[in-house]
User: What shape does this take?
Amino acid sequence: MHIESESADVARIVAGMSKIVTENDGWLHPGLVVRHVGQAYSIGINANDLERSPGLPLVQIPRALLIPVEGIEWEVRDGTLAAMSGVSGLSATQRGLLDLMLGLYGLAGKLEQACRTLPVLALQGQEHLLGLLRLGRKHWTGSPMPPASALVGTRTLACASGPEGGPSRPAKVLMPLIDLLNHHPEGAPFAVSDEGVSVAVRAKGVDLECFGYYGFRDALSLLLNYGYASSQPRFLQSIACRISIGELGHLQVQRQDFIPPRDLPRIERTADGVAISHINIFADNHRHAEERLALAIRLLWPEATPAAVQVAAQAASEQVNALNMAYYLALSDAVAASSGAGEAMVGMLETVVDHQLKLLQLARQRG
Assistant: This one.
């Protein structure tokens, strides 16, 4: 493993984490490169080592080295994150890794960065903007929370746990070193098993940066949950909305935050029509939304011909697109009129809104 950093403290901490991982049945690819520039960390891979060792995983962290955060009370000391209490259940090795991870957060100014870039922190007091964002994501509340808790929430993975032979439950854990991976839609998923968490090599660009995959999220979801603006997603998650489908009644898009496997929606009858759990709008595949809306319409209209269902689904898709367009135009106006939200937050909101509007325009043009 190689470390590229002008900070001796960063190099020392990363080397210490790597030593603990490899001495406790973990794995690091021999070509792994940890890069540190300013406030940013990333992981890359050496081209020669990648060619010599194809198929090897990038990182494997044993379950015993994952750090459960439930019960830990966080506080801010001298502008950095610290565990105040609740660490007695951690092993000495886990505690050592936690201290090193918090040291990295401190050196990169992650807490201060979170206060500027996480909407739940940066937009407190901006009630109009918060209200619009709540409309865009059904389960995102924007409720005030301590900066320490908000930061930790962006760094954890839900990892099933439970007594041997008993039911498992999701436990949020911090992942040493894997935590340094940035997100990309084509990055490697975090593979969770009884042994721990592993990540495959998914390298991109001339510098062969390796990426993780945070999940099926559009640009707005990435901003709300992780505090950064991305123009990479080629789809957007529709807002919750309600449309008329003529004599059949109404169709309600419920907008769930977590997408079922293979993006198959849940559909159910309602008192005045039908509800569908979610709709995703793809800029490069307008048929995606139409096909899922057709499933809902077919439930209400089983005797209809395929052609009739397609016509109804196309009309429904146009309504959903129009409502999303109106939502993002309203959000754009609110961002432009905001004051006190902070330059960084405003800039990221503008980037995300512009990106979502472009995707909607592309989907409409190709429809």
Observations:
- The radius of gyration is 23 Å.
